[in-house]
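I am writing to request your help with a piece of structural work I have in hand. A protein sequence and the structure tokens that stand for its backbone fold form the material at issue. Please examine both parts with care and let me know of anything in them that strikes you as inconsistent. The record follows directly beneath this note.
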Amino acid sequence: QVQLVESGGGLVQAGGSLRLSCAASGNIFRVNTMAWYRQAPGKQRELVATITSPGTTNYADSAKGRFTISRENAKNTVYLQMNSLKSEDTAVYYCNAEVVQWGGTGDYWGQGTQVTVSS
């Protein structure tokens, strides 16, 4: 099996920064695309950013210019640097990864980490 463990959430004032981390472990041959999603209270889960194994990135419009996704392939870890945070960024942030295992490929989620931005 594969586990994704997130860390780095918390409470921050508007205009501040946070860095989220997510490490994948377990039965892993290779990790393909990794991504961050978020879900605010009463809203659907939405994509924030993605990064492929070679490092190609893609961002939601709400994240462009403020958030940066990166990864360390040797550690199967993805990061999300969030700057200039706004109250509307308040949400539970989830890590997602497409993992190639010896028995096939699977899509995995972390447990989520709360980000709260106070105005």
The first strand starts at residue 2 and ends at 7. Residues 32 and 67 are 21 Å apart (CA to CA).
